Amino acid sequence: MQTGTYCGFEVTAHDPGIACITFNRPERLNGTSSAMKRDLIEILTQMQMDDSVRVVLFTGTGAGFCAGDTIGPEYRDDQPVATARLDPGHGHTLGTYDGLRVVSQGLNKAIRDLDKLTIAAINGFAIQTGLSLALCCDFRIAAKGAKLGSATLRFGLLPDEGGHYLLVQHLGLGRAMDFLFRKRIVTAEQAAELGLVHEVVEPEELLGAALELATELANGPQVAMRLLKRATYNAAELSWNQALDDIAVRTPMADHHPDAQEGGAAFLERRQPTFNTWLERGEQHR
Question: Which domain, by its residues, includes 202?
């Protein structure tokens, strides 16, 4: 697992196979820049291909999880670490389109498309880009005192990184309209009631709760879980017959995997299964 410090975040490793991405610019409320997004895309691409990574955990430092894009020249002037410098665009119409598709939307696609399970440990403000990043994760735990919102209309802007789609998926059309057009910023408890987060904990318990969940997920049968993640997201947009066919195509990969053999043996022997020995041996059984 590749660890280190990058533009706006650092990556640390925790057993078993948990990659923790911590946003480390509290003076900006961990606001994103083009360079930060590009480094995140590169790191997530590496994590997708790295069998030692089982779960990816996002969190922030200070009062913000991620309070949206940095406003001002810092958005363009940051230097990426994992990637070469590239003009982020936005200087003209086509540049804005390219910048959104490749960088801002590209980051959320990289998170949503990651086969490994993801967790957002929301320690503070998760606004606009930060909210969308959290909603792209598979699980969300928020600390009491955290605030979540889109509120792009406060600046006369659009949730152009895909926030509108994510909110419709999580809230339904009617509540998403209310959330977006009335520029809602809600508390962690209100977010839980709306279904935007799964759990709310005390601030000092946040990282521990997130790592406990990450450990539970990391110890599960990784191949079956990755297949099920993709099938579940697909099911939200497919017809019944298409969803049946989609999971039928994936099932043989799970059924004939060593984890399934271990799961069946453990059931018959009335013991807890020990999954992922193929990962520990460094074998390739995807």
Answer: 4-218
Q: What's residue 24's pLDDT?
A: 97
Task: With a cut of 50, list the residues of the chain below it in pLDDT.
Answer: 285-286
Residue 212: count of CB within 10 angstroms of its CB: 12
Query: Read out DSSP for 199-242?
Result: EEE-GGGHHHHHHHHHHHHHTS-HHHHHHHHHHHHHHTTS-HHH
**Total domain count for the chain?**
2
Encoding tokens for residue 104? 């801002």
Q: 9 and 137, same structural domain? A: yes
State whether 139 and 159 are in the same domain. yes
Say how far apart CA 59 and CA 214 lie, in whole Å: 13
Phi, psi of 144, deg, nearest 5: -55, 135
* Residues 210 and 236 reside in one and the same domain: no
- Residue 72 confidence (pLDDT): 67
